[in-house]
Here is the input.
Amino acid sequence: MSATITHPTERATHSRPDAAAADMERVAALVQRAKAAVEQVIYGQGLVVEESLITILAGGHVLLIGVPGLAKTKLVHTLGIVLGLDDKRVQFTPDLMPADILGSEVLEEDGDGKRFFRFVKGPVFCQLLMADEINRASPRTQSALLQAMQERKVSIAGQYHSIPHPFHVLATQNPIEQEGTYPLPEAQLDRFLMQVDIDYPDLEAERQIILRTTSVDEPVAEQVLNAEDLLAAQKLVRQIPVGESVVNAILKLVRAGRPESTDIKEVKEQVAWGPGPRASQALMQASRARALLQGRLSPSIDDVLALARPVLQHRMALNFGARADGHTLPELIALLCRRVDLA
Here is the structure.
């Protein structure tokens, strides 16, 4: 069963610092329980679970990149159970149409013979949507999902329909098979707060996977939060104070990744376009969420460094020469973290 969070707005706007700290500690303990509950089912992917939870706590969407068989679908379903959210899954294919995701109007007739249109909601009307292999859908369908991700509402026949809150998209991509795919446009990639890369588990984790998932008593996730708890936690994340040094570190790191404004030679030579202001916003929110998840009352520069890769790597692009020479964005972001003076 979920534990109830005291909503910050129900207090006297945190008039006392000790009351604010107590709220944060209570929420931190709850989200740590949620993380542990997910890890009881998803083995050997602690960093993936943490970054996915950070994204949700920050109120964003996450792009999961990994080869088949690394429990991406199971991760999303498990998060839905643990967080008490209504989760749905859509398998993206080239013939998928916007109406298959958003819904459509159908013509009906009542008992008096009067005809009318009724809106039938699509799978996007949920709280946790898994967009499986999102890059296999056409740009038209991708753009329909983009509106839902950004505006939390959809437009059908000139009428707006609100999507339930909270609403998070966890989309997956296969980094190996690119035949018959439609690469996501930069505008849609920027809507994902983080890109989380899923690697193969280590030896011991894979041992636990084959022992526990092939037995009769396969572990089952338990609910820790509910939708109201999560909304309260997300509101609390936005209230976490951020020191000036952390703000400056975020600005320095993001601006150093732009070839127009950087002093780093490698960025000038290798980067086609760099991260925009949305990257700074994402780093700010994600750093707050990471601090809360780890039981701290404010983020540090270490949070910024730890989240630099998942926040920046899908918001930058290498030029042709850099790709031809074998350079990669993770290597360049690691170089940024070493070269930029964030103190």
Observations:
- Residues 6-15 have pLDDT under 50 and may be disordered.
- The chain has two domains: 1-239, 241-343.
